[in-house]
# Entry
Amino acid sequence: MRRYKQRAALRDHAAESALFSRRAIVGFLFVIALIGVLLGNLYNLQIVEFNSFQTRSNDNRIRLIPVAPNRGLIYDRNGTLIADNQPVFSLEVVPEQVDDMARQLQDIQSVLPISAEQIERFEGRVKSHRRFKPITLMGQLNEQQVATFAVNSHRFPGFTVEAGLKRSYPHSASLTHLLGYVARINSRDQQRIDDRGDTARYAASRNIGKQGIERYYEGTLHGQPGMREVEVNNRGRIVRTISGTAPVAGKDLHLSLDLPLQLKAEELLAGRRGAVVALDPKDGGILAMVSSPSYDPNLFVSGISGKEYSGLLNDKDRPLINRATQGQYAPASTVKPLLALLGLEKQLITEKTKVWDPGWWQIPNVKRKYRDWKKWGHGWVDLNKAIASSCDIYFYELAYNTGINNISNFMYQFGFGQSTGIDLYEESNGNLPSRDWKQRKYKEPWYIGDTISVGIGQGYWTSTPLQLANSITTLANNGRRAVPHFLQAMSDGNERQAVPPPEKPPLVLEQPSAWKSIQRAMYLTANRPGGSGYRLFNDAPYKAAVKTGTGQVFGVAEDAEYDENEVAEHLRDNALFVGFAPYDNPQIVLAVVLENAGWGGVNAGPVARSLFDQYLAPKDTP
# Structure
């Protein structure tokens, strides 16, 4: 009891109360501080950082989706649709939304018939594309495949089926080399887009023009993308569309092309290697351009297989080359009228100047004999007969007297050795030889024998079929030079706007009467017995002016005979033809080249006659 009282006496209630009070105050202050921190954070979140967090919230909830514009359509001069857009479904993948790409690609093969090659190509594109942009895994899904994926879509986050428009070429291989095609944007295309600052413009686009008209007028055909603001849920699925701006479709193109003439030319060249170019001499509009063989551009739109592309690439007939603008051939006798025009301009000859043709010609004091195509010769030959019968001896003599400098400078004015200015990127310059060119290329001087070969369109001289047609257009126009082109007009909705044809300064001669002299000589080639085109055109319902040509592919020794039956097919002569009609009012200019076909008049001539007939036939009036 006593001990208890001592212990009780030791307790200091005042001290304990003070201690409790101090602790309570500290605890209260601590709580107040925490509440202050909480309120401060709430203030910071709700007031100070409101805009930032609202933006971040909207970024998760609201997305801006670019909308691809419809690609412009392409029509021929008669309003026939030659490049269309067709609806198509494709399976798209956004790589950054897929956790395990390899497993997902393996699993999806159990749902859709996706080949190993398609997956391999897709994986290659993933490495070079931005991960936030959708990439096509499978194109051209049918309705059953779309339905099958829709049922299983929950298994494949990041995979979606998108509806769009696919480029379609109704006439397939008939127009490939002039229209070109569109195909998927690859890493090189993307780099060019970025360098031009067009990244935003192609944000929703998968394809781009690769060749031909599609590539040249890509900026006009593509259009401007739109934008769609949508709200999405936590799985990224679109809940609703908030707002948007409509895309602006690309402009439609109206070409100078005459589709019936184009199809006729393709029919005539079927199974043969060669090219046809038809121009409207009034403005240089291209009426037809055929390169044979061709290929189907629709193969490239959705992605050509490696096997198919390898087959085209390794084909010995080279279908990927546009022979009309890229094929380089010796122009042969088709340029003799132009050489004669130069002779008249330089007053080296007149229409009555005669040369003796015994079947061969020699450079003074040189033993070598340059042979005529006609072994026994043509006898006495004037200008008209030289062109009509394509006498080589006459032009050996003329080239010798004219000299390579004059020939090269004059022919350059007709477009040889340079781009014609056509609205295609796929064009070769050919080769117009000169002293400087030979020195640069071969480190050798120019010899007089080189000039003699050039005098009949052989030797180092090469040109494209388009250049031949372009030069004859200048001749038919008395020196007015038209620039070959396809585009006639553009249309935006219902409004059609004509595009003025490009122009060049005219070629003015000091002897202007020379134009008519050469035109008449070409007229006689088709309308006088003995002319190389007489048998073909003497019964035509129109009057044509023509020139045939036979181009050697390899040189024949002086004492050797050329026997077509003993020469490999790829070494046989090329058949060429140029001309315009009607003679008094030219409406069409033609150039035809058939590879390894033999004589120009016999093989290329009938093709030209059929095309003249097709285009100049009386049109039925309603």
